[in-house]
Amino acid sequence: MKSSIKNLSKAALLICGAWLFLITTTSGVHAQGSGVKPIRLVSGNIIPDIVTPAEAKVAAGASFDGKTFKLIQFKQIPGDREQQQWAAAGLLLVDYLPDDTYFAVIEQGFDLDRLTDQAVTIIEVADIFRFEPSLAGLIAQGGATDRLVISYYTDLDAATVMAALQARGVAIQAHRDYSRQLDITLDPARLREVLALPFIQFAGLPPEEPTLDGYDHRNASGRANYLNTGYNSLNYNGAGVVVGIGESGTVDSLVDVKGRLTEMESGASSSHKIGVMQNAGGAGNLDPSNRNDAWGATFLSVVGSPDYAALYASHSMRYTNHSYGVTISGGYDQSARDHDLRIVTYPNHLVIYSSGNSGDSAGYALRCLLHRLGQHHRADETEQESICHRRARLRGCHHVFQQPRPDV
Fold this sequence. Notes:
With 408 residues, the chain is of the alpha/beta class. The protein has helices at residues 12-26, 80-89, 133-140, 158-166, 191-195, 271-281, 308-315, 334-345, 364-372, 383-395, and strands at 39-41, 44-46, 63-64, 67-74, 91-97, 101-107, 119-124, 147-152, 171-176, 181-185, 200-204, 242-246, 261-263, 298-302, 317-321, 350-352. The strands form four sheets. Strands 3, 4, 5, 6 and 7 form a five-stranded antiparallel beta sheet that branches. Strands 13-14-12-15-16 form a five-stranded parallel beta sheet. A four-stranded antiparallel beta sheet has the order 9-10-8-11. A hairpin with a 2-residue loop joins strand 1 (39-41) and strand 2. Helix 1 crosses helix 3 (133-140) and helix 9 (364-372) crosses helix 10 (383-395). The protein starts with 11 loop residues before the first helix and ends in a 13-residue tail after the last helix. 35% of the residues are buried.
């Protein structure tokens, strides 16, 4: 399904302005000298209202499945033992925001007065903490979308969350349980209704499709080859390791990986994919001078954005290599969060980007970042740069947003 994103052709300045409006209107009035600290986002500092544990209330519609969700700022970060005691009693601190602030999942029976000596303030989770700037800008311009990536809170039952979404006409396209993320499609007219659901911790637009760069064979001159020649008793050739090559297309009957390949894609063969796979682990059958590092590894030919967790479980896939880059270098968004939580869940799995390309190709992430820092459209710009500039305008000031780092 193609996204029905509307009204995104306006200047990125409007998106940034809408985001700054959220910053300035979210904070509210706060008491001076009360010990409150700014909540620091890349997009700016948010000065929260002072809401004591005795004053904290559960707003109408703000609870789900017997739980409510708040931001709690502490005088100092609580110790592990204290957090464990609270968790046992019904208060779970999840993601951290500086300074000394946590997203909290609170059981209805938990007595917030237990936090009187520790908490500075307990506030609602405003949209500025939940929405990525691209989504915030879209909403500020009156636009709509039929696709979202959402994250739900730790300690919630995934089936219950999905049932609540489906009751509002949402279709679940993908579920990554390790990162508690859902790819969903919905009626654009019900966008705000869905986003108002209290269990949605973060929401953003789907990531852009990756774009491939060129490639070249460079292992012939690399000293890494000495690691698999037997020299000095070293023979690290990748034997026993499963590597996924995530590109579109098939590998067909590539002789350089004969007997070591599981083809999981369909359709026409891709010379680009073949080249990337040769770079990673070609045995040198086609060209004996170009035997590459992992000539003993087993390879999976997979799609560009595979189900990493499923392949890790079903095929023991240890590494996934992509020739493309993703424009997440300027901020911490849903894609970055998914990567972090996947690595936390599967610590032996590594995803490699922009590997297998020409050495002089910077990729889109860096180019887009340079554009956002002030590089403007040129009459003689390349097609790659033009694509980047269109993306930068589409995403607005996405690079100023930062979701909290998980598991702090």
